[in-house]
Amino acid sequence: MRHLNYFLSMNNFIKIALASLFIAGCSNPENQLFDKLSPDESKVTFENQLDESKNISILDYLYYYNGGGVALGDINNDGLVDIYFTSNQGKNKLYLNKGANQFEDISKKAAVEGESDWNTGSIMADVNGDGYLDIYVCAVVGIHGFEGHNELYINNKDNTFTESAAEYGLDLDNYSTSAAFLDYDNDGDLDMYLLNHAVHSEASYGKADIRNKRSYETGDKLFRNDNGHFVDVSEKAGIFGGANGYGLGIAVSDFNLDGYPDIYICNDFHEDDYYYLNNGDGTFTESMRNYFGHTSRFSMGVDVADINHDGFPDLMTLDMLPEDEKTLKSSAGDDNPQMLKYRTEKLGYHYQYTRNMLQINQGGKHFTEMALLSGVAATDWSWSTLFADYDQDGEQDIFVCNGIPKRPNDLDYIKYYSNSSIKTKLNSTKLLDKQALKKMPSANVSNYVFQGSKDLQFKNRSKDWIENDSIISNGGAYADLDNDGDLDIVTNNLNSVASIYINKTNAKANYLKVKLRFGAKNTFGIGAKVISYVKGQKQFKDIQTTRGFQSSSEPIAHFGYGKIAQVDSVQIIWPDKTYQTLKKVKTNQTLTVRPNNNRKIFNYANLHPSVLPIFKKSATNLGIDFIHQENDFVDFTAQKLIPYQRSDRGPATVIGDLNNDGKSDIFFGGAQGKQAAIYLQNGNGFTKKSFASIISDSIYEDASAVIADFNSDRQNDLFVVSGSGQYAANLIPRLYQGMALTKSNLPETKGMNASVIKTIDYDKDGDLDVFIGNNSKSNSFGRMPDCYLMNNNKGVFTIVQAATFSSIGMVTDAVVTDFNKDGTLDLIVVGEWMKPTFFANNKGKFKNVTESLSPGNNNGLWQSIAPFDIDQDGDQDYVVGNWGMNSKFKSSKEFPMKMYYDDFDTNGTFETIVAIEKNGNYYPTLGLDELVEEFSGMLKKKFNNYKSFAGKKVDEIFDPALLEKAALFEVHNLKSGYLRNDKGKFTFVPFSNKMQVSPITSFVQSDFDGDGKTEVFAAGNYFGVTPYHSRFDGFSGALIKNDKTIYLGNQMGIDLSQKAVRHLDIILLNGKKYLLVTINNKKAEVYELPMNKN
Predict the structure, then answer these.
(1) What are phi and psi for residue 607, nearest 5 degrees?
(2) Residues 388-423 as b or e (16 or more Cβ within 10 Å = b)
(3) Residue 263: in which H helix or E strand, if any?
(4) Which residues are within 8 A (CB) of 129 and not within 5 positions of it... i.e. 6 or more apart?
(5) Beta pairing class for 1085-1089 and 1072-1079
């Protein structure tokens, strides 16, 4: 019930940011990238001060501490960027830039202070198309006595404004967060998307389809600009507007590069984010599920930029995952597996997790989420994110606004609030409000800044690029305030004076700024693309102003170039789909570009990478209609502390001739209680055929299988091994002989959870023996299983060399190969919490020779292995699939991930405790609730609240003597890569980061592109983890041509993201070649491959 109470409690509160005492940072100002201007110097004294006397708090209004926005733009066209702040309860302020980092408050004279009771977002845009920036201010109206409406200040061109929202049809009285001005219909003027937020009510809870019933106050709205009057076209355009739309962030960009702006919406709480793809006809199609495997749970700020130089906009959304262990372990996080299952399967919501997400655009086809791999997943309670090249080295950096002085998701506070009598009093009177607020702990977290680098890596530079303080920053925006070429940052702070960060890059690195003057009614070229090319490297910018959180930035394209003095070319694609190109552009200047008269229509197909014609989805699937269905067993209910599941690694798949007609057939295994399936090849494809012996064995879960003639009767047999581990009695191997698949006896294998079976004539007697690799013992993850070498004597199998293969590790895959080139078949075995293990065959006797061939610590969570001469030097290398780096698991040779295994509480049941290193100390991956549920007698009295537990190291939670006594398993490496053959010795070489986004579970060799050379195709993804890990769903597959050339799926016409691939096999049919992809809990897929070109 704790998780259910948490879910309900969290839906009564929202992130807050309350003022706290200033804490001086520890960074050295001389080495900082940014100087923070003092108010005395800048004359910017704006402070978004909340008035406690107005008798309202976070307990009344869930977005009470979301703060205000900031809009940056040159309102008087004097070449200097001015600043506008919104105040939640006070007067909004406009500061005119006087140069030399001096600003003048002209708010009252400009008539822009505002009349609404509660202001939120502020956006600058040239709404009427007269060449001057106007200001749109959002407000919350209609709850808690808040009065007013959204205000539109039209620029009078003399440093004054006229409020004209009603005249333009934009005087909305909604629960507004922010807005974006965009030309969604490409008619030359700016339209508007209004982002609104819900509040908790009976109408906001329930199934996801609530979003289809429009709510005036809380639903988002899209307005079309009809000659200066804005018309609500939301429903016609396909925009959701339900009572469950907790809109906090909006980003506009042409994500699929078709010439029309698309929209990404961040929704807080249970509602999914929205991904609106522009159809080009005035309508949008919401497409989140098709393009994103998962999103942030409590999505807040968002920004867009191309961070990997492929020319497609990537995006980052913010959430509230703490980096600090004390805060992490005392704060509510993700749902438990049962709650997530209920939300996704019963209520219809998509997969959401409580952390930042970095979504990498894969050619407009789908997004791969990589925040954990990139190092930006945890920035605590974060509001605004801003991509820009702050140090001008050519890579995008990230600035994050934070503010969390009090936490309503504190677990001790939730426990206090969950008391029924307290809850009743809070709901019926304000007498306990102050006491309740005091129960929320205070905390201080500085803003974050990350330095971008190659291979999608970001380095946390918060301690040395900015002043570390505890100021609560909500809205944030960037602009070149001092016209020195680099980008400065302004933040709107809660209960503190606004911050102005002046960038000191200056002449240390070169830049180029591009300002557009498009004309017509879109004077600043909103929606235009500016693309810079230097020495083959592309930098892509999409001109939009709404960024971060409740804020807008200067409408320019800014590029950094390091020491490069000249840009090869700059291409501008105008909003009307015409283009022009500037050649040999000098850096360190600001260009103001207007459309030339002879510009031509741009072909957007030129921005899309050519797709290699390798994979073509079969229209008929060759008659294979097999759909794998997992059973309902969840490993975590039986073994609560295990790091991941074991029962969902199927189905087995094997290709071979089962009816003696010379054609390859297919066996698909089934999950426990689900039928396996056999497909026999016919003239045009495959036909399913039932076998009584297979049907009657549906109680077994089929983990792996081989087809071969084991009894020399010239008919192939089927050998299947069982996995899952739900019931020990069901973990037995099975041999089905002949065309009738008659079941035969096999040796007892003691309830081992099998993962792989391979045929190997190790003794050269002419018949096929088998190796069976096991991963674990039934319901005892961590206890070392035995693997088996079974000798075949005329179809009768016996276990041999048992000592050699006893307790060798948690095996997941194996390859039969002659790795030492002595003419006999050897074995390489891979698995979890072990290193790739080499067994040399010497005249029929196997010996573990790993330390002589591949010494050192290289334990991983290895999933797969295949032979492949990847460096094309003539010897055999081996590609190996590991867990990947996009995970909360963390390991290195210096600080391996650890797993302790023992009966810690001496109750007869063995448990696992997984610990990872942070700042030189080891902490358990699980929180107090999970550990107490398993170790109630040991821990409940020791830690009587979450605060007493938070931040404790694993050897402070558990007696060090207990840990010392336990079996210890380690992981030193999580990267996938290959074992390079160096004259018979093997050295591990990791793949690049694009191959580390998910576990790689399968390889298959073939000539895929018809060039006469062998390549390897790799696939993976895995979902059998708790919500703590999110889902590993972003790997689309990859073609490995050699050690230097790897193509991802979207480059070849195949997308296996959001699919947990278990097997890859090649099918030959009627002179054609096909790839068979077997997927856990989904339908098998077939792709036609090109034939040899020679």
Answers:
(1) -85, -15
(2) bbbbbbbbbbbbbbbbbbbbbbbbbbbbbbeeeeeb
(3) strand 262-267
(4) 189, 190, 520, 521, 522, 523
(5) antiparallel
Contact yes or no for 216/174 (Cβ under 8 A): yes
Tens of pLDDT along 842-867? Answer: 999 999 999 999 999 999 999 999 99
User: What are the start-end ranges of the H helices in 23-162?
Assistant: 39-42, 107-110
Residue 193 CB contacts under 8 Å (≥ 6 apart), including other chains:
179, 180, 182, 184, 220, 221, 222, 223, 239, 250, 252, 263
Q: Which two structure tokens, joined as six digits, stand for 184?
A: 């969604």
The span from the CA of 562 to the CA of 382, in Å, is 30
Q: What is the pLDDT of residues 928-956, one digit of tens each?
A: 999 999 998 899 999 999 999 999 999 99
Give residues with Cβ within 8 angstroms of 1011, minimum separation 6. 1092, 1093
Report the distance separating Cα 874 and Cα 960, nearest Å: 51
Integer CA distances (angstroms), 721 to 30, 790, 833, in order = 65, 13, 22
Q: Which two tokens stand for residue 1046?
A: 């790897």
Helices and strands (H and E) in the chain: how many: 21, 73
Closest CA to 48 of 13, 3, 89: 89
Q: Does residue 290 register a pLDDT over 70?
A: yes
Q: Which of 1074, 908, 925, 1077 is nearest to 1006 (CA)?
A: 1074
One-letter amino acid for residue 939 of the chain: L
Q: Which residues have CB under 8 Å from 598's CB, separation 6+?
A: none
Whether residue 265 contacts residue 273, with contact meaning beta carbons closer than 8 Å, is answered with yes
Give the H/E segment covering residue 723: none
Q: Which of 5-19, 460-474, 577-591 has the highest mean pLDDT?
A: 577-591
Residue type, 952: K
In terms of Cβ atoms closer than 10 Å to its own Cβ (0-12, 13-18, 19+), residue 519 is middle
pLDDT one-digit tens code per residue, 899-937: 999 999 999 999 999 999 999 999 999 999 999 999 988
